[in-house]
Specification:
- The complex is a heterodimer of chains A (487) and B (101).
- By secondary structure, chain A is α/β, with parallel strands linked by helices.
- Chain A is 41% helix and 13% strand.
- Chain A has 18 helices and 15 strands.
- In chain A, strand 8, helix 6 and strand 9 form a beta-alpha-beta unit.
- The longest helix of chain A is centred in the middle third of the chain and has 20 residues.
- Chain A is globular.
- By secondary structure, chain B is an alpha+beta fold.
- Helices cover 49% and strands 23% of the residues of chain B.
- Chain B is built from two helices and three strands.
- A three-stranded antiparallel β-sheet of chain B has the order 1-3-2, covered by helices on one side.
- In chain B, a hairpin with a 2-residue loop joins strand 2 and strand 3.
- In chain B, helix 1 packs across helix 2.
- The radius of gyration of chain B is 20 Å and the shape is elongated.
- The chains are: A alpha/beta (487), B alpha+beta (101).
- At the A-B interface, strand 1, strand 2, helix 1 and helix 3 of A face helix 1 and helix 2 of B.
């Protein structure tokens, strides 16, 4: 007796002998091509005529297209429940990390900073105001809170201001967290977000000894970086580059990463920016849009470019990165990589902005220097502008239960979930996108926002369409994207 | 600039019409009145909208209405299966204390 059924047993007997499984569709381009996706994140591209035929049950069942639709669970011709069971299993796999709960814990150890960046997203305080530092007592209470999270992996990220201006509290938190973790036995990691300008050998030796990764800022070549990130001496770039080299010597090359922010000065210069990253030996870059918070709003830096200009900047950048790879230069773009992992694998990186339910609080939390707990980094930035909507409580006075069950956290998560948000509920890109209630509240005044007017929606849709079109038109890019998705 | 269109509700559902109009809410505001099975939509464009712009928007709106009609069909046909998939996927998560995984 054969172990497997014959292939014919899985084929429809004739046209119309299949049932539709749930899917959504969205226009891909103005050539009447549509993206179809299902809850498991599988996608196909069909012409409008094929889509109509599919729904009318007149699609030929003996062709490759039908096989693909069946393999990806858009149709079922077997009459059994196998497709339903597999779809449920795949959906469950995509969502399984939600149960882990909060893994990323960002601690603002100080608001002080030696830079005066006009776009600063953190509304920094001047360097001499020591009362903007977190105390050791509050750091301990923050750790009490962090270890209440059931997540098997805990990453503690130190932020500022310039985090290293309160290095003593960083040192205390790292050592104390490790001591406590002998009991809790979590997969514990640390990252220091720093501009490196005040990094000493002692600090870097400590990072090396204790396994603290370094995340720094590099906005591009000297002129762009120094324009974006002014500091006394006008030498931010020189200090950043020197800091990167020194940090690599101490903690290792692969443990030092850099982030860039796109400003008006960056537009038209994306190749120069990417070249700078290549020149400095980075194998990845995150082409990041300016967040509409903090000093970026006060100084109107956010109004310096439109979402369409940013999309052009982004596409030019990824096009260039593909060409570099084609010529043997290994570099990836991280925003694309996050999306591609969602599109091409069953995994999800847990990138907070692209999660639904929203990742605020349940994926990441931020603890301000004064013990205040916010639902996300952006929520803290809003608070610095006077909007405390997403302030969940304070580690000094509120319990874990009070904070994590706070309406300030549960209401935005509940209201913004994409499967029930207008327009998102029918969007083929929903499995790859996310709810961003903090952004939509900050810009549009409610947790959902009207998607036709949402720049979050415009940016993401443009990116999804661009990546899919790229994979369809360029086999090399498709292969490269699969590599990025599986790293 | 105001423009009126009539939609036969025997052909398209009111839900499909509303969903279509929502998608264009960044380009126009709309008001719907139903009379004898016909939805009369008053579409208001900004004062700077050119005739060409309005023409393109209306063309795209008609295409969107067809898409929404198709979505309506898929949604209705697959509703039971969708609920089954979701109930399978989200059952026995262990998030409730006495629930087995």
């Amino acid at each position: 007796m054969s172990r497997f059924k014959e292939i014919g047993d899985f084929a429809a007997e004739s046209e119309g002998q299949y049932r539709l499984l749930p899917f959504r569709f969205s226009a891909l381009n103005d050539r009447d091509e549509y993206v179809l996706s299902n809850a498991a994140g599988e996608f196909v591209v069909l012409h409008r005529v094929q889509l109509q035929n599919l729904v009318d049950k007149t699609l030929p069942t003996d062709g490759e297209l039908f096989q693909e639709l069946q393999a990806k669970h858009f149709v079922d011709s077997t009459g059994g429940n196998l497709s339903v069971d597999l779809l449920a299993l795949k959906l469950r796999t995509r969502l399984h990390r939600l149960a882990d709960f909060t893994g990323l814990h960002m601690i603002v150890v100080t608001l002080r900073c030696d830079h005066s960046c006009p776009y600063c997203q953190v509304s920094r305080q001047t360097e001499d105001r020591a009362h903007y530092d977190m105390s050791v007592e509050l750091a301990d209470k923050t750790l009490d809170f962090i270890f209440r999270s059931p997540s098997p992996a805990i990453k503690i990220e130190f932020q500022g201001g310039e985090s290293l201006l309160n290095f003593e509290v960083i040192r205390h938190i790292v050592l104390e967290a490790k001591r406590r973790n002998q009991t809790y036995k979590r997969n514990l990691g640390f990252v220091a977000a720093t501009n490196l300008s005040v990094a000493t050998d002692e600090m870097l030796e400590f990072f090396s000894a204790e396994g603290v990764d370094v995340s720094t800022s590099l906005d591009g070549p000297r002129d762009i970086h120094n324009k974006n990130r002014p500091r006394p001496g006008k030498n931010s770039y020189e200090k950043a580059i020197a800091g990167i080299h020194r940090a690599r010597e101490f903690v290792g090359k692969d443990r030092v990463s850099a982030l860039m922010t796109t400003t008006e000065a960056s537009l038209g210069r994306v190749k120069d920016i990417i070249d700078e990253y290549v020149r400095q030996g980075f194998h990845g870059i995150f082409l990041r849009k300016l967040s509409p918070y903090g000093f970026a709003v006060k100084t109107d830096a956010i109004g310096a470019y439109t979402i369409d200009e940013w999309i052009d900047f982004y596409k030019d950048g990824v096009d260039y990165i593909i060409e570099l790879n084609r010529n043997g230069v290994r570099i990836q773009e991280f925003f694309a990589s996050v999306i591609l992992k969602k599109m091409l694998t069953s995994e999800d990186t847990g990138f907070v902005d692209l999660m639904s339910p929203a990742g605020i609080g349940i994926k990441a939390l931020i603890y301000n220097y004064d013990g205040s707990v916010y639902a996300s980094d952006e929520a803290r930035m809003l608070a610095e502008m006077g909007d405390h909507t997403f302030r969940l409580g304070n580690v000094a006075t509120d319990s874990y239960e009070t904070i994590m069950l706070s309406p300030a956290l549960l209401d935005p998560i509940d209201q913004s979930i994409t499967v029930s948000a207008p327009m998102c509920d029918e969007c083929a890109f929903e499995p790859y996108c996310g709810a961003d209630p903090v952004f939509h509240h900050g810009i549009y005044g409610d947790f959902v926002g009207r998607k036709p007017e949402s720049s979050f929606c415009t940016r993401n849709m443009a990116t999804f369409r661009y990546l899919i079109e790229k994979m369809r038109s360029d086999p090399f890019a498709k292969g490269l994207f699969y590599q990025w998705a599986n790293r | 600039v105001e423009h009126k269109i009539e939609v036969d509700l025997n052909v398209y559902s009111l839900d499909a019409l509303k969903r279509s109009l929502y998608r264009f809410s960044d380009r126009l505001s709309s008001f719907i009145q139903v009379d004898s099975g016909v939805a009369i939509c008053t579409l208001t464009f900004g004062s700077t909208a050119s005739p060409e712009f309005i023409s393109v928007v209306l063309d795209n709106f008609r295409k969107e209405l067809l898409d929404q009609d198709l979505r309506d069909r898929v949604r209705k046909e697959t509703e039971a299966v969708r609920n089954l998939i979701l109930s399978h996927a989200l059952s026995k998560t262990g998030l409730i204390g006495d629930e087995s995984i």
